[in-house]
């Protein structure tokens, strides 16, 4: 198969870093760039320096005028549903940054509409594709520490983004925690069954909404205590966070991105990191390409990622109503009476 042709939609901020990844990825060809902001287009032209790439401010014009295989959407979540459906209608595969959409309701609407089309939608959950995460998952799935009965996941960073993120009411849960919730599903091999969550906005916060949140999440019988802050003070964690998963035969910890295994007798060893063809976001696009070539759904296709996004939806409902909620598959979230 020849190189797959890609149209990237959204090249401001984070989109600029995606441009460099796509430009340098051997198995794809970047054929067009779209952004509503003319300044972003000018920046992209300077970065790419490639006269064969076409530039547009209207994605529909790009779809009509440029032959392509994949639309890669790196725009605010509020635009994802419309852009994804337009791409599907144009006969394109869709690759989107997380979260799926701004709300869980929109995500389920997109899922139902997307079923009408032959091509799939993939969500980039790049945190899955890091060697330290793969090492932990492999250890858990091999049963080396037995059944994981409880765990802790702590995330602490102080990050000033500006722009649309500052307007979210629950920015930590809505934009960051999806990574950690998805990693829990990925590592444990289970879907969440219930969540109880609280959030707050510290007096010094630069976000418009709540930048601190905690949650108690059940994955069947496994209990996870989650805490996150995007306005922390003092020592920060990595973007993965600090993780402790405790099983019947030992514990796995991830501290400063170093995975450690401790057995019942106290003997500790650092987990060996697997060799991967690509990591992080490069692996996400690699998985997209491989799925198309092999005529299969990618690992983080829309239906699967709804199960991670359902944890976000459950957390938001729990915060709003002050109740524990049960998460039923990827289709519904209901309050526990």
UniProtKB/TrEMBL annotation:
| The GFO/IDH/MocA-like oxidoreductase domain, residue ranges | 135-253
Q: Which domain of life is it from?
A: Bacteria
Q: Which residues form the Gfo/Idh/MocA-like oxidoreductase N-terminal domain?
A: 5-123
Please name the Pfam families in this protein's record.
GFO_IDH_MocA, GFO_IDH_MocA_C3
InterPro entries registered for this protein in UniProt: Gfo/Idh/MocA-like_OxRdtase_N, Gfo/Idh/MocA_Oxidoreductases, GFO_IDH_MocA-like_dom, NAD(P)-bd_dom_sf
- The protein here is known as Gfo/Idh/MocA family oxidoreductase
What organism is recorded for this protein? Metabacillus bambusae
């Amino acid at each position: 198969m020849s190189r797959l042709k890609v149209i990237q939609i959204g090249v401001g901020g984070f989109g600029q870093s995606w441009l460099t990844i796509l430009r340098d990825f051997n198995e794809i060809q970047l054929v067009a760039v779209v952004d509503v902001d003319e300044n972003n287009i000018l920046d992209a032209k300077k970065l790419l320096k490639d006269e064969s790439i076409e530039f547009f401010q209207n994605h529909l014009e790009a779809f009509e005028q440029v032959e392509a295989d994949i639309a890669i959407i790196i725009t605010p979540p509020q635009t994802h549903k419309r852009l994804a459906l337009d791409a599907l209608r144009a006969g394109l595969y869709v690759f989107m940054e997380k979260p799926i959409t701004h709300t869980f309701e929109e995500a389920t609407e997109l899922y139902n509409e997307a079923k009408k089309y032959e091509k799939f939608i993939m969500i980039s959950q790049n945190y899955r594709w890091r060697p330290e995460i793969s090492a932990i998952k492999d250890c858990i799935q091999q049963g080396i520490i037995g059944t994981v009965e409880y765990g802790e996941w702590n995330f602490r960073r102080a990050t000033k983004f500006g722009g649309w993120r500052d307007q979210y009411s629950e920015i930590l849960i809505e934009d960051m925690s999806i990574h950690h919730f998805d990693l829990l599903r990925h590592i444990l091999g289970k879907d969440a069954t219930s969540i109880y969550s609280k959030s707050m906005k510290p007096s010094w916060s630069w976000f418009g909404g709540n930048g601190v949140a905690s949650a108690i999440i059940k994955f069947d019988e496994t209990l996870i205590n989650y805490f996150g802050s995007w306005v922390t003070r003092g020592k920060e964690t990595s973007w993965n966070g600090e993780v402790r998963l405790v099983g019947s035969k030992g514990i796995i910890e991830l501290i400063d991105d170093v995975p450690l295994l401790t057995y019942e007798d106290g003997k500790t060893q650092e987990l060996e990191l697997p060799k991967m063809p690509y990591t992080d976001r490069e692996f996400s696009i690699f998985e997209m390409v491989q799925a198309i070539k092999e005529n299969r759904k990618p690992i983080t296709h829309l239906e699967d990622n709804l199960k991670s996004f359902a944890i976000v939806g459950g957390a938001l409902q729990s915060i709003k109503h002050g109740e524990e909620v049960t998460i039923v598959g990827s289709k519904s979230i209901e309050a526990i009476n």
